[in-house]
């Protein structure tokens, strides 16, 4: 099984998560720029974060055989902070980068006038830079938030089939689908969608344009939820082709609209700007096998002592 998690905040996760995700079948992720929990106080704080999403995090993911791309934006919550809003002027220089596959996550949090402006401006940027957009819908007043989001999308230059509306549930899926958008579902441990509800939604609406993500971040969340949904779908009688469509081909098609999706992580450097994820002295890696996707097999812990070894631990190791 091959899995693409189209919305996960790996910056907040550990190498153990990457290892478990690879073992569960995850071979690709997209990490949307978002709120860090702790408010930012200046645009410069965003720039260091964006650079990490473009440099360090893809490097870390590649060590575990996972292709990493990101989406860049001013997130809905911080769109309300005048200290942060000037970051909008600097987004264009990030939107031209190879690993940026969408503008996002944008959308509504509290549905304020400042959020209206940031959403409209960033949908326009997506149209100008020929990128799709990942649009977050609010956790409160979901249906009202969705309707307002769809109105702003309709008024924008970006066609709805370049828009992924995320955090949908049973109350919002129909209108988002009727609006012509891609349909994203975040599956969390306790709140929002769970595996069984996801099965029911797919039974009712079918797999077309549906994406499932873990949205795992610094809060209570589970980076293996994509696999758990896949297993629930198979158990409920969906075919492997259905599962591959929802968990792989749909996210590939959506982010492929950017023209920048590169799912090959074969050429992995052992260091990023001279730094590695290792502790101690690297030793050569042995016994690597090729996964079904042809991608790197990722973290195989060949160090019971835990101190030295990592998956691509030696700068001098070369592999087919
Ligand atoms: Zn998110």
From TrEMBL:
Entry keywords, A to Z: Hydrolase, Metal-binding
Biased composition (Low complexity): 297-320
GO molecular function annotation: hydrolase activity, acting on ester bonds; metal ion binding
Pfam entry (one): TatD_DNase
Chain segments carrying region Disordered: 274-320
Gene3D superfamilies the UniProt entry points to: Metal-dependent hydrolases
Family assignment from sequence similarity: Belongs to the metallo-dependent hydrolases superfamily.
Protein name (Swiss-Prot/TrEMBL): TatD family hydrolase
Organism: Streptomyces aurantiacus
Lineage of producing organism: Bacteria, Bacillati, Actinomycetota, Actinomycetes, Kitasatosporales
């Amino acid at each position: 099984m091959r899995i693409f998690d189209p919305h996960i905040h790996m910056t907040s996760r550990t190498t153990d998560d990457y290892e478990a995700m690879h073992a569960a079948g995850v071979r690709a992720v997209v990490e949307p720029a978002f709120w860090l929990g702790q408010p930012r106080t200046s645009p410069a704080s965003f720039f260091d974060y964006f650079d990490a999403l473009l440099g360090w995090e893809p490097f870390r993911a590649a060590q575990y055989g996972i292709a990493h791309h990101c989406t860049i934006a001013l997130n809905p919550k911080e769109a309300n902070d005048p200290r942060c809003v000037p970051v909008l002027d600097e987004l264009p220089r990030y939107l031209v980068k190879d690993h940026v596959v969408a503008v996002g996550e944008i959308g509504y949090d509290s549905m304020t006038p400042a959020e209206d402006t940031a959403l409209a401006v960033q949908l326009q940027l997506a149209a100008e830079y020929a990128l799709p957009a990942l649009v977050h819908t609010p956790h409160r007043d979901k249906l009202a938030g969705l309707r307002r989001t769809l109105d702003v999308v309709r008024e924008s230059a970006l066609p709805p089939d370049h828009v992924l509306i995320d955090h949908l549930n049973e109350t919002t899926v129909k209108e988002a689908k009727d609006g012509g958008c891609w349909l994203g579902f975040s599956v969390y441990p306790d709140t929002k969608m769970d595996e069984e509800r996801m099965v029911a939604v797919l039974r009712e609406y079918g797999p077309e344009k549906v994406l499932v993500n873990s949205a795992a971040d610094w809060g209570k969340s589970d980076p293996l939820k994509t696999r758990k949904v896949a297993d629930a779908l198979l158990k409920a009688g969906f075919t492997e082709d259905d599962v591959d469509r929802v968990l792989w081909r749909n996210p590939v098609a959506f982010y492929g609209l950017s023209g920048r999706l590169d799912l090959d992580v074969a050429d992995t450097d052992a260091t990023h700007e001279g730094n590695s994820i290792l502790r101690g002295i690297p030793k050569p890696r042995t016994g690597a096998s090729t996964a079904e996707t042809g991608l790197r097999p990722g973290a195989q812990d060949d160090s019971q002592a835990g101190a030295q070894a990592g998956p691509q631990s030696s700068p001098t190791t070369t592999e087919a």
